[in-house]
Amino acid sequence: MDENQFDSSLGGREHLPQEANSLRFATGRSIEIAAMTENILRPNKTKLIFQTLPVHMRRRVMSHNCKRLPRKLREAHLEQLKKSGLPPKQKRPSRKYRRRPGNLLSEYIRRQRRIFWLETHIWHAKRFHMIERWGYKIAYAPCDKAFRACYRATSAHCLIQDISYLIPIQITGPIGTIKKSFTTMTKQECGLSICAKANITGCREGSVHLYKPEQYPYGYIGKVDYLWEVCNEIFGTLWLFVHPAFSEEVKAILTKLFILTNLHYCSDDKYIVPTKKKKPIENLNQEENVNIIFLPNVLNRFRLTGPKSHAIMASSLICVQQNQDLKNNEWVSLLKDNDTNIELEEKSSYWQMLKEVRSSAELPPRLVLGLIVKDPRLSRPARRTKAIKETTCNNKLNSLLNIPNFAASSPLWNLNIHENMKSKMLSNTQFIERITKTQIVPGEIFENDPVIQSVPIILVQRPGSQDAKLKKIGYGCGWDIIMPSGYGLPFWQTLIMFGARAGGLREFESIALEMGECYMPPDCNSGIQNEIRIEKELKEKYFRLPPNKRVNYIKLAINSPFRCLWKILLKDWCNEQIQEFYVLRDKHTLQKLQESVDKKRPLSEWTQGNSCLIPVYLQIVKKGHMNCHAIICLPKLGDFEETAITEPLHNDPNARLRKEMRQSHRTHIKSVKRKNVKLKKRANKGIRVVPCIKKTSKIVPSEYVMKMRNLWLPPNVENVRNLCSREVLGYVSQGAFSFSEARSCGVGYIAYNALRTLLENGLNRVLIRNTSSRTYRMAILHIIVS
Amino acid sequence: MADGHLANKKDETKKKFKRAPNKNYAVKKRLPARPVEGGNVIFITKKTNFKAQLDKCCDLLTKGENEIILHGLGAAIQRCCNLALQLQTLFAGTCQIEVNTGTVDVVDDLEPLTDDLDYGAQVRHSSSIHIRIFRTVLLGAN
């Protein structure tokens, strides 16, 4: 029977063909193949991905942890998980893994992609509250609540702040052209112009108020510090240090003013740029031969405030004394021939002489001093110590009167050397290795080590208060230190180790308040942005409170507790619409105003005064406290005899409305809830229905909440002057307890016409009422001239 | 311009002798150089509360300081004397006073108010008083 099955060669009867036709073979099995591919392409849908794996490849927690799956299946697995609604939870990598240097660095770079970090960022982030402002991550205030300690540092010790976020702008060109362009932006009345003889030699730093071209007195931009680096009488280089809050404005205006045609980004290798985001921008005007370079993050700048800052500088900076010591530094060879004459000996002896002084307030005001110092790590003490200067009281007063000509020059201004300097700088590891391993006596510091390169820096003195009538002489004095990028942290740590106390952005506000200066005035864009931000924050805070803890501002007759309404204020005082307003900065006029305030002399009428705000410094006379946004009021006759003047309680018409609304809302919610319950019950029975209330996101408040908020704080304010029993003259924009005056002080702005009315009434004192209080307090008025 | 130059020359000759308010310059004061500082050295100012400074001195003396030194400059000389005399009556019989007078050179900076002028500086002399108050009867002796 079986014979039939055998091949013929084996003795059977079956004859196999000589060749096989693959096509016929395949067509014969086409149905089977189709079924198989169908099965492979669309696997059985009831199975999960990991269930398709053979048993020996399955792991227990596969469904939770996708890392247990083979890599090629992971994506599909995650897709499935998303569909099923389970969020795929990725476990955070362990701290040990995260802190590995390579991983840490990549993480840091990732975090800097959106916002820029300063060089001392990591040092600060460990100790400070960091905030995002002006495209930078900036330290706001130390975590240890050191408010009073920071004040004490400014008045008796030393406070150090990192202001490297100031953007240097280098303008090179003929002085005449620069002067001509800047005359449209600056005004003679507000102080010295940018090409004043006092500053053009480069020996002193200057500052100017910038306005939009031809818009004075409107269109204020901000106050800018500048330095000159003069090559000769005709051709010069100007360095502006522009605050990032208005740097974009300045950039746009400069581009327009100098008709810069050749706007392009520099190649990265030309300057040291930490990340690719902030590139130096170079603009060239070929006709006038003016070249402008914006150099964010090319220079570091620290601000030291306080009398001890001089001692700290004196002990942390060691000058290079001879040209020979510089020979080994590669950056020196990159200097041009005319720059190599660095005058090291004169400078180091001059610095030696300055060191003898006790406080920087005894030096020529705004002195600029270019030095070449040894690596700051060499002079660092082992422990945190207070730098104390034991001065010998020898009389060298005459040498301090004037600034020698060689003081200001510095190779730091030469942009060619920066990159080289950064690349040749020893990292901390290399530095420690150098000190501990290669020296004959390990750990002993050899200052003239050729490998450790010297650094060019620039010191700028700040005189602080110069008028004993307003503030004790020398308050707020100190040094600014400018150094190349890369050297920020070594310098910072050395200064800290010599006893400087670190401060943040909050200290700028508090120092400005103590000094009686305007911080972020309301007539510039940066000031307006600042006001909006503060208003938003305060409003959020206010509405987070439960209703019974909220201050009822309507009852207190305060209609804008979180923002000063300058335009409406000015409109109320002149009875016409105000489109634009400005803060008076004309020094001469301000001084005249101060005189008439002192002598209670009435002011003359001034047409420009309608849209003019006068900056004033206020001091509470006896009792009381002053906060931000407090109102400045006109006293009535007889107010000065009374001890406490209170605002009568006002009627709140919205209270009833709020109550009604709340009740109706409550009933509405109740009914909706009841309906939903009913619907749910029905749904359980098998009937599918859509629920009544759609769940909205929590970020956008509902219509009811918005209405309620408007009833708490009515949005449309039309009148501010005659709202309470005393007429409103102006607002306090910065107010707090001032430690240097031992009473509450503030900086505010008053409408010009209001000041006129005040003086017509023969008064030079005002009443001040906080937004959350009914009591008026008396305050003295000074006009801020700066 | 010619008039301006003349005015400048006049001012330069003037400013050596007289510290008059000037249209071209604003006078700014520098911090006077301080003598040796220390825990027992007190600089008397016009602004600080008199009582507070008196209390500070009393505290120092009662807490075992053998001598305190008071410095007064210019208009604060009178206050400094008053304070020392008050202390003398308060610590009658246990403290003695030694008074020195002197002159301190202080610097005034002339800040230009117009573009075509440079900074200037001038030295002014101010009288000063230095009072040493020291204990004659040591603490714990009685």
From TrEMBL, chain A:
Gene Ontology BP annotations: tRNA 5'-leader removal
Residue stretches making up the POPLD domain: 478-566
Keyword line: Nucleus, tRNA processing
Record-annotated POP1 C-terminal domain positions: 612-785
Coiled coil residues, start to end: none
Keyword Cell cycle: no
InterPro entries: Pop1 (IPR039182), POP1_C (IPR055079), Pop1_N (IPR009723), POPLD_dom (IPR012590)
Major location (coarse): nucleus
SUPFAM superfamilies reported for this sequence: Folate-binding domain
Cell compartments where the protein resides: Nucleus
Annotated region described as Disordered, given as residue ranges: 1-20
Stretch forming the signal peptide: none
Cellular component annotations (GO), alphabetically ordered: nucleolar ribonuclease P complex; ribonuclease MRP complex
Domain Pop1 N-terminal: 25-97, 106-173
PANTHER family according to UniProt: RIBONUCLEASES P/MRP PROTEIN SUBUNIT POP1, RIBONUCLEASES P_MRP PROTEIN SUBUNIT POP1
Protein name: Uncharacterized protein
Organism: Eumeta variegata (Bagworm moth)
Taxonomic classification: Eukaryota, Metazoa, Ecdysozoa, Arthropoda, Hexapoda
TrEMBL record, chain B:
Subcellular compartments: Cytoplasmic granule; Nucleus, Nucleolus
GO BP annotations listed: rRNA processing; tRNA 5'-leader removal
Organism placement in taxonomy: Eukaryota, Metazoa, Ecdysozoa, Arthropoda, Hexapoda
Protein family according to the UniProt entry: Belongs to the histone-like Alba family.
Pfam families for this protein: Rpp20
Main location: cytoplasm
Keyword Cytoplasm: yes
Keywords: Cytoplasm, Nucleus, rRNA processing, tRNA processing
Protein name: Ribonuclease P protein subunit p20
Xref: Gene3D superfamilies: Alba-like domain
Entries under InterPro entries matching the protein: Alba-like_dom_sf, Pop7/Rpp20
Gene Ontology CC terms, in alphabetical order: nucleolar ribonuclease P complex; ribonuclease MRP complex
Organism (species): Eumeta variegata (Bagworm moth)
PANTHER family in UniProt: RIBONUCLEASE P PROTEIN SUBUNIT P20 (PTHR15314:SF1)
Physiological role: Component of ribonuclease P, a ribonucleoprotein complex that generates mature tRNA molecules by cleaving their 5'-ends. Also a component of the MRP ribonuclease complex, which cleaves pre-rRNA sequences.
Complex and partners: Component of nuclear RNase P and RNase MRP complexes. RNase P consists of a catalytic RNA moiety and 10 different protein chains; POP1, POP4, POP5, POP7, RPP14, RPP21, RPP25, RPP30, RPP38 and RPP40. Within the RNase P complex, POP1, POP7 and RPP25 form the 'finger' subcomplex, POP5, RPP14, RPP40 and homodimeric RPP30 form the 'palm' subcomplex, and RPP21, POP4 and RPP38 form the 'wrist' subcomplex. All subunits of the RNase P complex interact with the catalytic RNA. Several subunits of RNase P are also part of the RNase MRP complex.
A molecular-function term among this protein's GO annotations: nucleic acid binding
